[in-house]
Amino acid sequence: MEVVIVPDAKAGGALIAEAIAALLSRKPDALLGVATGSTPLPVYEALAARVRSGALDASRARICQLDEYVGLPADHPESYRSTVLRQVVEPLGLTESSFMGPDGNAEDVQGACDAYDRALAEAGGVDLQLLGIGTDGHIGFNEPCSSLASRTRIKTLTEQTRQDNARFFAGIDEVPHHVITQGIGTILEARHLVLLATGAGKAEAVARSVEGPVSALVPASALQLHPHATVVVDEAAASRLKLADYFRATYAAKPAWQGL
Fold first, then answer.
1. Which residue intervals of the chain are DSSP H helices?
2. H or E stretch covering 37
3. 139 in any annotated domain
4. pTM over 0.70, yes/no
5. Catalytic amino acids?
6. CATH number of the structural domain spanning residue 161
7. Within a domain: residue 156?
């Protein structure tokens, strides 16, 4: 696992946007897996700025969701479909035809999960999957004790996660209890995993994921099993890492042409 420590969230967003731009220069129709929440916003803002300036042509890129609420109307402003369209698809000048996501309102929810896994495979697989991390170490909505081989499926949110997400709604009572999420096994099939974490509140989860044992109790620790996983953290999120100085020195010595 490659760990990159940056000064702040903006620097992390710019670094990941540079990696995505490099990917799109090599493979213009790359399939990009995106995450929601506040953490990845600097990435999307940096990408949109590149598009506006003419430095990046993202017109052939494809976008896929990591997860979706169950039972929330697709056009609800806090559905992940709406969020991705608003924060990623539209700013990059893409159309909805470039976008893939699971159906959180399907009558057969598990069937929709299976169909989404198949669709990702038929699309050639995810080239780069952007991830966030929960305070309990979850990725996507794979809560602690999720199987490390799990596929896209329906999950019940923990009370902690519902509380964390309540800031996007009028109150916790409006936060759905269930979601569709790519499973850890599905996530690990992406060619490049990039996890961004910022703020002191994520420091313990980052340390357990990067330096602790691989464990279902810390779902993000599964990234240690991936051949190309990059963890980008700001100084606050890196504050519990015992090997922080080593990670700084290792990345500083890396040839610039290698990228992330």
1. 9-26, 41-53, 80-84, 109-122, 159-165, 184-187, 203-211, 244-252
2. none
3. yes
4. yes
5. 67, 136, 138, 143
6. 3.40.50.1360
7. yes
The rounded distance, in Å, linking the Cα atoms of 5 and 231 is 8
Query: Rounded to whole angstroms, how far apart are CA atoms 141 and 250?
Result: 31
Which phi and psi angles does 215 have, rounded to 5°?
-150, 145
Give the number of residues written for the chain.
260
Read off the tokens for 210. Answer: 């990067």
Q: Can you give the residue range of the structural domain that contains 236?
A: 2-254
pLDDT tens profile 144-171: 999 999 999 999 988 877 888 898 899 9
Q: Is 177 helix (H, G, I), strand (E, B) or coil?
A: coil
Q: 185 and 129 in contact (C-beta within 8 Å)?
A: no
Q: Which is nearest to 44 in space by CA: 92, 99, 94?
A: 92
Relative orientation angle of helices 9-26 and 41-53, to the nearest 10 degrees: 50
Give the span between the Cα atoms of 12 and 205, in whole angstroms.
18
In a domain, 45, yes or no: yes
**Using one digit for the tens of pLDDT, what is the confidence trace for 72-112?**
998 999 999 999 999 999 999 999 999 999 999 999 999 99
